[in-house]
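User: Show me a protein chain along with its predicted structure.
Assistant: Here is one chain, sequence first, then structure tokens.
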Amino acid sequence: MPDLFSPFVLKGVTLRNRIVMSPMTMYRSVDGRMGDFHVMLMGSRAAGGFGLVFPEQIAITPDGRTGTHCAGIWDDSQIEGLTRVAAIIRDMGAVPAIQLGHTGRKGSEMKPWDGKLQLPPDHPDGWQVRGPSAITYGGRYTYPVRAMTVEEIHDIHRAYADAARRALAAGFEWLEMHFAHGYLGASFFSPLANQRDDSYGGSLENRLRFHREALDAVRAVWPERLPLTMRLGSDDFHAEGVQFDDAVWALGELKRHGLDLADLSLGLNTDAMTGAPFNEMAFMVERGARVRRELGIPVGVSWNPGIPQEADRAIREEKIDLVLLGRPALANPHWPVWAARELGHNDPFALIPPDWSWWLRTRPGPEGSLGWPPAGKV
């Protein structure tokens, strides 16, 4: 029976445990390039015991960013910073992963702490956002959306393939495509955002075409020995949007096109959601279990699995294969070590580099003197 600290093998890659640092936008890049901040952040989490470490979503085109301070992979000059990030993750014992994406109609934003409002196309830090149809998201996303042409769709697929080549050159060993959270891929899948009357709109089959062709383009250049995964917006929580049954069918189709693992998340294609369980503990686990059971594909989930006992139970009961942590990874760079102590692991410090763990194992002191809270307080 697996547990949270069991190795996980997918294709030619072995993770030391089932704990993943989820991609989180940090707004620290200049011209799409990563620097010392990203090396520090990803390296510390890898050193902290995470098995798989993602930087933030990496934009495949300049207008695929959330804002002008987000990371990109549309130019060879950006490979150097990404190479440094991948190298430190690997050196600290984790597997370096990359998530490629395009924000679509939810791009051209201010930083969240500056208001997170959408900037107009004529603003120095703004641009004309694009989507499957000329449908404005609404809420704080107020500016018109330009519907993409078929040729632009094909350009995006080529951009995904070019980005995958750069990711491989930078040393990443796991590639994920971000088709959730109201971004471009998610909006093509959702009838709330996609009202096209060509082969990319209308039926569920047509609305998945964008995904299939993007996946095929990346699969053609990404080595078969390395995992290729997708974060899918699996529910819009809206009567006229994506339903979870749609996502189960879609993942079956994508598995036939070479998808190796499903990272289940939400559609977030509208703010007008009904019954969205944002405050429920680990609410994607049971949905992940259904996908795993019905499709026979490995599954990872995020959305509030940060209590060690809950995360471990989901793995032990074989409902999911990976636990993705966002905010818990920001709050505690040694979350895996903390979780190991909470769960009674026989050697929690085995999760961190040996030059650190030696001191923590061999120089004991009074309870609490190492900076760790007493175990069993959750």
